[in-house]
Amino acid sequence: MNNSRISRRNFLRAAGIGAGAVALASCAAPPPAAQPSAQQPVTTPETGKKPLTFVWSPKAVNNPVFDVARRGAMDKAKELGITVEWIGPESADAQKQAELLDAAIARKVDGMGISCNDPDALKPVIDRAVDAGIPVITWDSDSPNSKRITFYSLDNEAAARKGAEIMVELLKDSPNKTYAILTGVPGAQNLEARIRAFREVADPAGLKWVATDPCNDDIQKGIEVVENRLTANPDLAGYFMAGAWPLFGDINAMPKFQAAAKAGMKVVAWDILENELKLLKEGLVHALIGQKFYGWGYDAVGILYDIVVNKKQYPPFVDTGFDLVRTPEEADVFLKKWQTGNWRD
Amino acid sequence: MSTNLAVEKSKATKTAARQPSLLRRLLQRPETSIILVLLVLSAVLSQSSSAFLTSDNIFNILRNNADIAIAALGVTLVILAGGIDLSIGSTMAFSGLVAAIAVSLGGTTAYQLPSFGLPPAIAFTLGVLAGAMVGLINGLLVVRLRLVPFIATLGMLGVVRGIVVGLTSGQTVRNFPIEFVALGQGYIGPVPTPVVFLIVLALVVALFLSYHVWGTYIYAIGGNETSALLTGLPVDRVKLLTYVLSGALAGVGGVLVVARLGVSAPTQALGYELFVIASAVIGGVSLSGGRGTVLGAVLGAILIGVLNNALVLLRVESYWQQAFTGGIILLSALIDRLRQRRS
Question: Which of A245, A305, B180, B189 is the most exposed, having the fewest neighbouring CB atoms within 10 Å of its CB?
Fold first, then answer.
């Protein structure tokens, strides 16, 4: 009893020291980005009036691709002399996103660009904004039945078909044609479109689909699922990743994947994140389909500005196109963008 | 070992007046039902895939779920004392992030964060202390400010996750020295390092519960808090300790995952509190407190890992996977209910 008391006191003391250390570490850090990071409002030189304010809302602020979009939006805002506020939920949560946007409607902002967490959940708030005279466009992820003016995105199906064509070509001399698909949350519209389009091209061309495994958009789970899949099918010839989840981590966390890729398994994956580009250079990934992260901010803010200021008309869908990365040289181009933070060309 | 691990101290003191039959004694064990489910599942899996019963695959499952099992050890202590800890997933991410910042060699995408390049042992310790600190706050909210544990730890779930996302601006922290990564990816002999951590910690917690007087207090308080108070047990201090240990153990799990994945992501372990608590409960730890064992909680985590493995090996269609997992968990709980009635 006595002993335990002493040890507990020591433990609490140690915990106290730890608490202090962590508190110190937190003080050194900048304020959280979850708060709306508004640019300094600047008045437009021509009119001297209060500048336009757009709200740009990603699905979640905890995702590096949206950070690139944010840079794009802020760069364009600076060019146009307007204010863009970056407002999104901490994690991908449709209801939270709708609440945040409702608050922006109440403040009578001049326009909104939204990457929708859910097409139906965001529809009412988009419609409320448009009814209140606030033009809304969507980017990356749509709400097709809402009153939004246009949707700015890549054509998921076209890009996935291209990915499948590459996979077919990569496996054309391979006697083994089996492949697996990794997805995120089952039912997510963009992922379902990618999977469907990929299979529509790959399966008739003679590739043999084995399974589609979900990882709930979770890096840890993605790694577990890929390793489990390669345990069940060690001789897989191809892997199509409809999102890059497991490739976020250290490749050594996936010894089976690494071994299979070194033994000739071909990998086509979505997105062009820094880690993926490095893996492509190492020859462990063979084709990457890049979305225009920077354009989600830069180009789309330009589109909304055109609509609000220049009264320009846009069709309901504006195709961003996509980047295809297959060679180390192409990978270097995008690695440089990640490393310098300059995505402007 | 298993007898030590499995000593269950129910609130009713055991009277060994009659020696019950072996079968009856087995049925009385809370781990029985989960072992049954595991055996049946393993039999089905080894029939349908030759890959299942290989040491490679088994170690893979254990390595992938060691973090959940280690965190389950901690939440078992809290639940045994009649509490609950919903902040575990966030705590795992926070501890992982603290260790990652401490150990990172820099050049990560979370460019606004400093990286200290500290030795892995120190980074590991800081990560665990960060978890213990979250636990300490949880405990103080419960025993000093008298918040209901569900609400106190639900609040902390949000606060701590928010701090993680805020500090990183949603970016990842990476670029760790090889000695740190080895904590998650390495082996000691043939056994993956995280599994060694799990075995050692499970033994320590089991011994603590069985042989340390505070271990018995935990069962007593969870069994009947009022009578524990009347008996003069240090109820508040014991409860505080369970939260601190839960935070620290979640911290160990969180740091090990970061080491294994080679990256600390703000979404790490998002929603994992459910798996961790489910591990304990499937393993026979009673949510009303006072009943359950460490062995049960570890087996519960292993069952969840085997289930994830099964989904892939059996090629369960992705749209049906949640229903499959939920069904097995229910089945396990139903067998446990049946067992309790029989014994």
Answer: B189
Does A269 share its domain with A186?
yes
Count structural domains, chain A. 2
Residues 107-146 of A with CB under 8 A from B: none
Mean pLDDT, chain A, rounded, equals 86
Is the Cβ pair A62, B109 closer than 8 Å? Answer: no
Asked whether residue A321 is domain-assigned, the answer is no
- pLDDT at residue B79 is higher than 70: yes
Confidence of residue B107 (pLDDT cuts 50, 70, 90): low
Interface of A with B in 272-291 (CB under 8 A): 274
- CA within 13 Å, CB half, B118: 17
**CATH no. for residue A81?**
3.40.50.2300
Which of B170, B213, B319 lies at the smallest CB-CB distance from A1?
B213
Residues of chain A with Cβ-Cβ distance to B166 below 8 Å are 31-34
Q: Are B321 and A186 inside 8 Å of each other by CB?
A: yes
A interface mutation test: which of B55, B165, B306 has the most A CBs within 10 A? B165
Q: Give the residue from A13, A90, A276, A293 with the most B CB atoms within 10 Å of its CB, the best one to mutate.
A: A90
Taking the C-alpha atoms of residue B153 and residue B326, their distance in angstroms, rounded to an integer, is 24
Task: Assess A302–B contact: CB distance below 8 Å, yes or no.
Answer: no
Percent of chain B with pLDDT over 90: 58
Pairwise CA distance, residues B71 & A152, whole Å:
43
Secondary structure E strands in A78-145: 83-86, 111-114, 136-139
Is A335 a domain residue? no
Least confident residue range of B7-21, B305-319, B329-343: B7-21
Tell me which residue range forms the domain holding A278. Answer: 156-290
Tell which of A256, A290, A324 closes a domain. A290
On average, the pLDDT of chain B sits at 88
Say whether pTM exceeds 0.80.
no
Q: What is the pLDDT of residues A291-316, one digit of tens each?
A: 999 999 999 999 999 999 999 999 99
Q: How many angstroms away from the CA of A256 is the closest CA of chain B?
A: 10
User: Interface pTM (ipTM) of the complex?
Assistant: 0.75
Answer whether residue A273 is part of any domain: yes
Are A190 and A262 part of one and the same domain?
Answer: yes
Fold of B52-342: ABC transporter involved in vitamin B12 uptake, BtuC (1.10.3470)
Distances (CA, A) of A166 to A209, A235, B73, B207: 15, 20, 47, 57
* CA neighbor of A291 nearest in space, from A143, A72, A42, A29: A72
Q: Are A174 and A123 members of one domain?
A: no
3-state secondary structure of A85: strand
